[in-house]
Structures are given as structure tokens and as C-alpha cells.
């Protein structure tokens, strides 16, 4: 049996689906296609802007732009550069994108644990009755001074509640955030189902800011779960697999 869950690569298509939902729209950081006009607008509105490929995984090509005084600092992986003008910044980004479609997204200041930024993965899967269920919550903890939290860029996987407690969130906050994430995951599953009933699993990458607000950064339609196998407690990994076997996933 082969993997039988619909996959879609375009982050822009997925973002538009979510923005069309009045209930989910508030969770989406402003996102626009990469053009000179949109770059100017986003930089004027926000102190930090991310540039990410419309199609692509692993966070390898993401660039962070930060306004510093009257200039613009870019960071790709660990490499930082400074540009004095918008035109200089745009020319650098044009070379970086190599003619491929990219998006601009408002930067969210992630909560940190021990000085390391982290975001949250919400795993959502269909039951054998076709009902969406949030089956796992865990965190991806980035290395200090990196652009992405991804596991394959040196990030680590952490336990959800423990990490939030270490980051200074109170138990009542953690309970509220947990409930909100579970509901959010299942709501996104329902929205995706309206566009294609072939989706069987989704992985939401959700930013948690220091005020406890949640932001959907991306929805993965073929989320990787192999890093969970490296955890001491493998119960999440096996729980996901029990749902996943029905649509042909083995690891």
C-alpha cells in the first residue's frame, strides 16, 4: 500500500485557503508574493520580514530581513549581510530567489527556551471514520542565531508542555495554549478537506510569541515524523503511526 494522502507544495495556495476563513485568518501573519512593491510595503510595516520559497521544505532557502537604523540586514542560515538601500536589498533577494516564486511574511518574535527560539508542530490526522484529530504536539527548538528551527538545520525536538514551562509559561497558560492548538489543528484539517477530501494528515508549524499568541507559519501536507523516533519517549511516534498506517505511511 502506497502513501495515500494528498500533498500540495504551494505555500501561497495553502495560505490563501486559510486567509479565506474568517475564524482562522487572525492566526496568519501577513503574507504576500515577493515583488519589489510588496517588499517595500512589508519592510515599511514590520521590523522583521521573512522571505521563503513558495515550494520547498527544510527551511534551507529562508532569508530573514531585519531593519537596523536606516539599513537592512539579511540573514541566510548563519550568513549576515547589510544593505544601505531598498534597491540593494531587492537586488540581493532577486539573485537569491533565482527567478523562483517566493513569499514575504511578517516576522514573529518566537518564544525562547534557554536563549533558543522554538516553534510548535501540531500533527493532525484523519481517523478511520474520516474525522480530523490533533494527534501530537511537540516543539522544534532552533540553534541560537539561526533563521529556521528545522531539525535538519541543527534544531532539536522537544516535549511540548515541558518546553513551555521552561520558557516561563504558567500551567494555566499552557493548558489554554494546548486547547487552542488542538482546536486550530482540527479546524485547519476541515478547511483543507473542503478543497480536497484526499488529505489524510497535516503538520502545522505554529509560532508562539512571548505574549502567548499563536501564528500559523506554514501547513505541511507531508510532515516528517522520523525525528520523533529519536526521543526517549517514543509514544508520540507510535501514536501517529497507528493513524498513519491506514493511508499507507510506514515511518
Give a topology summary.
Layout: H1 11-19, E1 31-33, H2 36-45, E2 48-53, E3 63-68, E4 71-76, E5 79-83, H3 86-97, E6 102-106, E7 112-113, E8 116-126, E9 132-141, E10 156-159, H4 160-166, H5 171-195, E11 201-208, E12 214-220, H6 235-244
Antiparallel strand pairs: 1-6, 2-3, 2-6, 3-4, 4-5, 7-8, 8-9, 8-11, 9-10, 11-12
What's this entry about, in short?
This protein has 251 residues and is α+β, with helices and mostly antiparallel strands. It is 29% helix and 29% strand.
Keywords:
single chain, 251 residues, alpha+beta, 6-stranded antiparallel sheet, 6 helices, 12 strands, 29% helix, YheC/D, YheC/YheD family protein
Describe this structure in words.
Pfam families: ATPgrasp_YheCD. InterPro entries: YheC/D. This is YheC/YheD family protein. The chain has 251 residues and is of the alpha+beta class. It has helices spanning 11-19, 36-45, 86-97, 160-166, 171-195, 235-244; strands spanning 31-33, 48-53, 63-68, 71-76, 79-83, 102-106, 112-113, 116-126, 132-141, 156-159, 201-208, 214-220. It has a 6-stranded antiparallel beta sheet with strand order 1-6-2-3-4-5, with helices on both faces. It is globular, with a radius of gyration of 18 Å.
